[in-house]
Amino acid sequence: MECDILVIGCGPAGLSAAGYAARAGYNVLAIDSLAPGGQLLYIDEIENYPGYESTSGYSLAENFEKQAVSFGVRIEFWGAEKIEKNGDRFKVMTTGEEVVCKAVIFSSGASHRHLGCPGEEEYQGRGVSYCATCDGPFFRGRKIAVVGGGDTALTDALYLSKIGSEVHIIHRRNEFRGQKVLQNRVRAKDNIFLHLSLNVERINGDDKGVKSVTLTDGSELDVDAVFIFVGIIPNSSVLEGFADLDHGFVVTDSHMRTSVPGLFAAGDVRTTPFRQVVTAAGDGAAAAHAADEYIQNL
Ligand SMILES: Cc1cc2nc3c(=O)[nH]c(=O)nc-3n(C[C@H](O)[C@H](O)[C@H](O)COP(=O)(O)OP(=O)(O)OC[C@H]3O[C@@H](n4cnc5c(N)ncnc54)[C@H](O)[C@@H]3O)c2cc1C
What we know:
This protein is of the alpha/beta class. The chain folds into 2 domains: about 180 residues, FAD/NAD(P)-binding domain (3-Layer(bba) Sandwich), CATH 3.50.50.60; about 100 residues, FAD/NAD(P)-binding domain, CATH 3.50.50.60. About 25% of the residues lie in helices and about 30% in strands. It contains 6 helices and 19 strands. The strands form 5 sheets. Strands 1, 2, 3, 4, 5, 6 and 19 form a 7-stranded mixed β-sheet that branches. Strands 8-15-9-10-11 form a 5-stranded parallel β-sheet. The longest helix has 20 residues. It is elongated, with a radius of gyration of 21 Å. The two termini are about 20 Å apart.
């Protein structure tokens, strides 16, 4: 099948890119190996998407999809498996048809590494979270556990210490991996408590949500939320050896251009300091604009 622009991944970045590109008059195919919406489908309540006081991730995903389709985007449930470039055309092998196109917008997202302990899946969205900006404000004045010892864990523990009454950082090593300056700030806060050389054995709760965590030394900490920052895995294996990656994240400039002319990346999969719905959607719009400029100069 042929199209002007192929969008790989239909989360907020991909659907925004596809909508912008189709509205600009391009023949756009958007594919997703699972379902349109991406991580939006896992968000119970989203309070920080501009223009909405509060909505469910599912309903926001439906609106993203409806709008893209109304602009003429064709959506297929195909996964991208391999990308090649021959001259000025891309050939993308998918689980459906082979696609030949002029530009590709890669927006396959990322997933948060899980602890894998009992209670983690059960209480996700009811106290277990992987995003402080997204869910921190739901726990104002409450006790919060943070798991991890890298820059994200320390930065987000500092952020959460302004919201929660107490923040308990649980880290499996006896030293943090995060920057010294962040470590010093964390240690200087009187409502942040450190639990080093320990991991979470189990997350406990009831029908209202998280109540406590049991640590590997058998102790139990009473908390209302557990924020887990033990790594993020970009869905970029398709681009390995094809475009420049940094720790698996696709390297882009501020126009979302990658190291391969005509290949753009948007959203959580790219090197970006902030991973949110609004930033993903913004990246998608910028990628569509850059793809338009690229095709016009072919
Ligand atoms: C539980 C939870 C709560 C969150 N809460 C908030 C919040 O309150 N506010 C906020 O702003 N953000 C929140 N986020 C983060 C936000 O959802 C993400 O930053 C955003 O969805 C990223 O959009 P994206 O389009 O880059 O990627 P994704 O949403 O991850 O979408 C990527 C899509 O690509 C598809 N895909 C992957 N690989 C392939 C392939 N090879 N071929 C085809 N398709 C592929 C996937 O199936 C997926 O549908 C939350 C995330 C989670 C998990």
